[in-house]
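FIELD: query
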Amino acid sequence: MRAAGRPYVALAAAVVCISFGSILVRLAAAPPLAVSFYRVFLASLFLAPFAAPGLRRHWARLPRRERLLLAASGVALAVHFATWIASLSYTSVASSVLLVNTTPLFTLGLSRVFLGESVPGVVAGAIAGAMAGATLIAVGDWAAGSDSLLGDALAMAGAVTLSAYHIIGRGLRHAMPLGAYLFAVWAAAAGVLALVAATAAVPLTGYPARTVGVLVALAVVPTLCGHGLVNRALRALPAPTVSLFLLGEPVGATILAYAVFGETPSAWTLAGGAVVLAALAVVVRSGIP
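FIELD: result
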């Protein structure tokens, strides 16, 4: 295979790995908080031998402000996983994954509010279109009852908090090696989730071997392999190209949900999903990070 094509192969593999995330969450016979904790805890544990030395070297040179931002980034990531993973207990995989993938739109909106960054008119129109698509999904889920709407709201909360994580950590990725940054944020998120689980009396031990195996797969396949391959692809491909490929996640997750659970998305979800994906495609093709 030619070297020029390898980043695209890595990116395609990343999309496949990430698409398994929602399926593995559903297969894990554990409360959402426990699943959220183990996803980031095990991922940070597996990454520690490679990333901990780099974090130790850079930690002493980090200003207090950046250390606080690192902690805030971990909190935002913890809330993202807690809300999005919980959403899969209430709504369909298709609705949940489509709505949480509106993250780039919230990132642009929050960047405008907190960082004063401008948003071009075409992107503002795309954001409005995506919200219209999300409304179509919610209308379809209305017929399924309040639980589905709760799931949609949790997925949207997951999108907002993931965008906050991206914005908070924007400058931190350049303050230390990527592996050290990920290890620090994942470990911080795991600590937050462990504290919340303890407060809510959610057990983190005593799960059967099958559940433990699924949790390990969740940490390895979509987290370490999926996001690791995305970061590798970003070294060789433009960010908009990578983002455009990642729009394949909702499609892949929906196909897998049908194959594994026999879950067929409603016509409303398909229509709203098409609008959301089209709007996201406009945003990433605009070249805005």
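FIELD: remark
Residues 32-59 form the longest helix (28 residues).
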